[in-house]
Amino acid sequence: FPEGTLHRMPGLLPFHLGAFIAAVEADAPVVPVTLRGTRSVLRDESLFPRRGRIRVRVSAPLAAGADAGASPWDRAIGLRDAARAEMLRHCGEPDLADRRELSW
């Protein structure tokens, strides 16, 4: 999970860059996989899921841009942003990337 954690609050947290840096260094695509409905089967901090439906969407692979002037870091950020935008389109939850009141 690119967020690096699980949390109770609905929404997509900021993504960590590790997987995206690795993808750029390996010249490998990232395949966004979006889960929807997991909050209805994993409730109340229980370790055991309830019966219910979840949706799993496997999106098209995303490649890091091959911009000759872009650094690997910039390419990883671009890849992260593209994957995040794709997942936000399908997750049905708010974007929490800019929430300043979240503390880690």
Write a brief caption for the model:
This protein has 104 residues and is mostly helical.
Counting DSSP H or I runs of 4 or more residues, the number of helices is: 3
Class from helix and strand fractions: mainly alpha
Overall domain count = 1
Biggest beta sheet summary: 2 strands, antiparallel
List low-confidence stretches.
Answer: none
Order of strands side by side in the largest beta sheet?
1-2
Choose one word for the global shape.
elongated
Helical content band? 25-40%
Number of strands: 2
The overall average pLDDT, rounded, is 87
| Secondary-structure element order, N to C | HEHEH
Provide a descriptive summary of the structure in words:
This protein has 104 residues and is mainly alpha-helical. The protein has one domain (18-91). Helices cover 32% and strands 8% of the residues. It is built from 3 helices and 2 strands; from the N terminus they run αβαβα. It has helices at residues 18-26, 38-41, 72-91; strands at 33-36, 55-58. A two-stranded antiparallel ribbon has the order 1-2. Helix 1 packs across helix 3. The chain starts with 17 loop residues before the first helix and ends in a 13-residue tail after the last helix. The model has no long low-confidence stretch (mean pLDDT 87).
